[in-house]
Amino acid sequence: MTRPSETAPRRHRVVVLALDGLLPFELGIPQRIFGRARDAEGNMLYEVVTCSIRPPGPVDTDADFAVLVRSGPETLATADTVVVPASYELGPVHEEGVLTPELAAALAHIRPGTRLVSICTGGYVLAAAGYLDGRPATTHWASAEHFQRLFPKIKVDPDVLFVDDGDVLTSAGVAAGIDLCIHLVRRDHGTGVANDVARRTVVPPHRDGGQAQYIHRPVPEPQVATTTAARAWALGRLHEPIQLRDMAEQEAMSVRTFTRRFREEAGISPGQWLTQQRVERARHLLESSDLSIDQVARDAGFGTAQSMRQHLQAGLGVTPTAYRRTFRAGNGTRAGAAGHRGDSRAGSVS
Questions:
Q1: Alpha carbon distance 311, 13 (integer Å)
Q2: What is the spatial distance between Cα 121 and Cα 142, in angstroms, rounded to a whole number?
């Protein structure tokens, strides 16, 4: 009789670095997201381990309690992905942009080629270690200006939820860490697994990395019209050409008013949002159906296979055929290194 351990796939090991002054919420994000990811047979796809930069023992948090961490810095050498959550006690890392000897010694355990991820101000650690030099990155909007001054070699984008630069990924504050981790599950294992994790965690299955960090009116003012009905209308006819004026008409607004209100509520333009929805629809069909590439393109609203290929190549770094080959088998191979930054084009929404 074959034991389950002999048939289960190797799990991708995520090591979370717990630093003094850590935020408990952010420390728990990787375990909550990666720990819920399973394949079609119910096998866990990730192993999540927490370590500190010192031998096993308590690590202070920004709350009125400490956490007991059972693994030391040598655990970083076993990681496929290292996640650095935020800390409020980074000392010279935050003030001078340099690592402490203790932290530098810990990071030295990380093997070349390991995927590196930061949540919120955890990006200061990656930056001080030189991992972000010459790369695009983000952090919490309130720290972005200071982050850029301290690390001028980094191309800081203060507006986005997260930046995927292939083997190094950074996110904005708190909930953006959830978005980034779900994005990684999607990148590694496809939309089906990522959506299942999102359902289990009761969070939105997809917020694009290029979405704004700070939305000026996250909750509509009382008795003020929203764009919710227009979005629902558009989702029901993604396969059809949709113009900006069509969506505005659903809310009885002028195009100008609708566009402004949409950005206030969603953090991105109607065109960017619609492209995101069509890409997600195409991914779902490529993973779950036997439709031809041409039919997937039509059903997702891209019209032609060439148009869909261009959007998937721009957003995911792969062709539709390569994406289907990767994720139909459920083998967990990542689809590509390109990050989701959204379509910056405006005007026609179709």
A1: 31
A2: 10
Half-sphere exposure of 131 (CA within 13 A, CB side): 29
Assigned token pair, 205: 């299955």
Question: What is the value of pTM for the model shown?
Answer: 0.72
By DSSP bridging, strand 81-84 and strand 66-69 are unpaired
Encode pLDDT of 79-100 as tens digits: 999 999 999 999 999 999 999 9
Is the distance from CB of 94 to CB of 139 less than 8 angstroms? Answer: no
pLDDT in tens, 219-243: 444 445 688 899 999 999 999 999 9
The tokens of 312 are what? 């998937």
Distance CA 166, CA 172 (A): 17
pLDDT in tens, 180-208: 999 999 999 988 898 889 888 877 665 65
Q: Residue 160: what pLDDT?
A: 87
DSSP 275: H
DSSP type of residue 165? B
CA pair distance 31, 36, nearest whole angstrom: 8
Do 118 and 171 touch, CB atoms closer than 8 A?
yes
Smallest CA-to-CA distance from 60 within 24, 25, 15 is with 24
What CA–CA distance (Å, rounded) separates 139 from 164? 12
Please tell me the distance from the alpha carbon of residue 90 to that of residue 103, in angstroms, as a whole number.
10
